[in-house]
Amino acid sequence: MQDKPFEALTVETLAGRLGEIDILKEKVGPDVSAWKVREVGDGNLNLVFIVEGSKGSVVVKQALPYVRLVGDSWPLPLKRSFFEYNALVRQEKRAPGMVPAIYHFDEGQALIVMEYLSPHIILRKALIQGRQLPRIAEDLGLFMARTLFRGSDLHMETRERKADVALFADNVELCDITENLVFSDPYFEAPMNRHTSPHLDALVAELRADRDLKVEAQKLKHRFASCAETLVHGDLHSGSVMVTKEDTRVIDPEFAFYGPMAFDVGMLLANYWMAFFSQRGHETQDSRTDMRSYLLKVISDTWEIFRNEFALLWRTERTGILYQASLFEGRDDPLAAEQALNHVVRELWTDMLGFAGVEIHRRILGLAHNADFEEIEDADLRAACEARALKLGRHLAVNRHRIQSLDEINRLAAMLDEGKLS
Ligand code: SR1
Ligand code: MG
Asked: Which residues contact 149 (CB under 8 A, 6 or more apart)?
């Protein structure tokens, strides 16, 4: 039997088209005519529906054959839904309980039916509102260490890993988005770029003329494109995390592919630094001083938790072909494996800082901006916040091999934020 051709769901057609799927009736309720459907997608790419019924609710996420943000002038393959589904399955195995439960996947219609997370909200929205989430550093530090370590040749059986590298290598178009939007477009006048103008024009010209910065951005792109170390989430910013005070979940891994281990960590920390610099734009009568301190602490804690968990997995789960235990755990040299671990963590550190730097730049200079800054209505104030972030981003990308600690970076961030450095 031939598969039905792809058709985008609508609020009106969803119940009729998905009402026969047993798991949906079980989760939402048997009376399909009573289902309430809302479209809530506010991301750049896909449709997202919440379906409510007498028994409960589910989320239906469907890819569109184009980039929603731009329209059908930018086609984008539906197969990204396949990669998202497969990444979610692997993430659940490697870091249990950290992604939504998956109820149903339809490859032809590019749709995933999954757990409705409630009362969760998107982390980015929470941070803009000035809400402090007590669990994010620990939960996301552990999530990254577990998924990144367990998806690499440090842990996996290498035949299985190579097959998986080949599977995800077909996620070409989403990698292409990142390769252009993150690593190249911010550094020249790419057609879809925009920035707060004229306020940032001089700084933007300076950054685009900065030879050291452009070389570093291309070195990072080189790592991104050619270093198939582990299955990365590929788009781990604060819009890809849903939170309550008690729970943290990671969503939206459609950009997943085998890439450099530090990419997810750098992207996440970059989004925290941007949240930090945007706080002055959201400060009304309520001071955001505590929120700023909280965000800097989240950054330091996330890295520390990531590093400690990575070290624990190194000592207890290093079953793969890299730095193989039989070579390093001899009785005569107990420190050899620790020396190798220090080397690997040092490389993660410098890569992470570089990826953070370019992620900051692309969110202010490129096509896809962050609500953290976009929701600051006063353009003077927004530009002031963005300029500080751009300067930190340049420092991270260019000086990453010389930077020793997050304390050092956070002190610099605080000085920029307080106008003590220009
Ligand atoms: C054209 S897509 C723009 C951005 O949206 C996604 O969330 C990714 O971050 C991508 O770079
Ligand atoms: Mg997304």
From this structure: 155, 230, 309, 310, 313, 314, 317
